Amino acid sequence: MSRCLWQFGGYASLMLAIGAAGISHEAHADFLGDSKAKVELRNYFFNRDYTGDQGPVINGRRQGEASHWSQNFILAAQSGYTEGVVGFGVDMLGMLSLKLDGDQWSRNTQMTPIHGDGYPPEDWGRVALAGKVRLSKTDLKVGEWAATLPVLRADDGRSLPQTFQGALLDSKEIQNLELYLGQFRKNSPRDDGSLEKFSFLGRGTSDRFNLTGAEYSFNGKKTVVGAWYAELKDIYDQRFFQVVHSQDLAQDWVANASVGYFQGSDNGKQLDGHLSNETYTGMFSLKHGPNTVYLGLVKVRGNSKWMRVNGASGGTLANDGYSYTADNIDERSWQVRHDYDFANLGLPGLTVMNRYIRGSDIDVSATDKNGKEWIRESELAYTFQAGTFKDLVLKWRSATVRRDYQGGQDFDENRLIVVYPLTLL
């Protein structure tokens, strides 16, 4: 823990030094006055119970359950920009995870790194720093942060968020059009305190993830069309096209649709071999009062699963869940989901979500082209609305996953999450 605290102190001092050096008194109003800082206290308990003696094998023994409990601290600080034609700023993300309970069976929770002896550390974390420059309506960010882009989406589903190290140019000079150009070099997944190269299937690694993108909004910003290109050098390249639309219907009725198409192939030295992939995704929803119903559809084609770097979120696909993403080779999946907001019944802050995802036609092996799976997930959440615990969030997530391939590895899962955000600036 002392090492983590030393890193926090060192990087915090560096951030303050960068903020103070070369910034005139006149610039303080924007650089400091527009600064924001908050810390999130995240207590996270995770338990996955493998059924039917189907768990992964650890040291010659089947894992009956995967369990871990952590207390996490996530400090997010963003400065404003200095005054002048060109503005400068700095962002910091400080992350620390303390083990409350865990042993060799913490493996496969993706809550913590696992040491060479098979056990989790007592504490782990890292500090991510990023400098930023603004000219007119164009921003350049260089460093490390939790980027969330359609082709590279950081995962924040466990103890600490995933981060990427690189540079991203984001321009809004043309009305209603946003352009992106970036390169990322390193990856720190949600269960790893170090920065490493990227990978896909694991046969090779790459330190170049290049991307370009454009998003155009119209119809009063109710419709957005996007086109993206991503390249994990020497492993894969990928194209993505998306349309997102929101439509007000009758009074208190709103319909939303998000449809997308991915096309990918191997790249350069083909470190993961010959790759070919097409993935179609569509999420459709209808909201009326406190109720929202969803229909999700995904179809994967080719000789590869949907392409994303190791550890990244599958949130761009419609059928992405807390426990699993339906993105296997040739998989066809559908989802039905219902959300309810209890504010309509006089209980503001209380919500519930239930969804069911079913996948079929999975290309498991040369002799099995019809793998099947289903996932059931629920979340009950409450946010305190006032008083001493205002903004405190309590969540209970439960899931059931069943498969008929690869030995099944069926499991039942429960998570208890307590989040308390504190605004510092």
Element layout with pairings:
Layout: H1 2-20, H2 28-31, E1 36-50, E2 57-58, E3 61-62, E4 65-78, E5 86-101, E6 123-135, E7 138-145, E8 148-149, E9 152-153, E10 163-171, E11 177-188, E12 198-199, E13 205-206, E14 209-218, E15 223-232, E16 236-248, E17 253-266, E18 276-288, E19 291-302, E20 332-341, E21 350-362, E22 371-383, E23 393-403, E24 411-423
Antiparallel strand pairs: 1-4, 1-24, 2-3, 4-5, 5-6, 6-7, 7-10, 8-9, 10-11, 11-14, 12-13, 14-15, 15-16, 16-17, 17-18, 18-19, 19-20, 20-21, 21-22, 22-23, 23-24
Describe this entry's structure for a reader.
- This protein has helices at residues 2-20, 28-31, and strands at 36-50, 57-58, 61-62, 65-78, 86-101, 123-135, 138-145, 148-149, 152-153, 163-171, 177-188, 198-199, 205-206, 209-218, 223-232, 236-248, 253-266, 276-288, 291-302, 332-341, 350-362, 371-383, 393-403, 411-423.
- The protein is mostly beta strands and 425 residues long.
- It has an 18-stranded antiparallel barrel. Strands 2-3 form a two-stranded antiparallel ribbon. A two-stranded antiparallel ribbon has the order 8-9.
- A hairpin with a 3-residue loop joins strand 15 (223-232) and strand 16 (236-248).
- The longest helix is centred in the first third of the chain and has 19 residues, at 2-20.
- The two termini are 26 Å apart.
- 33% of the residues are buried.
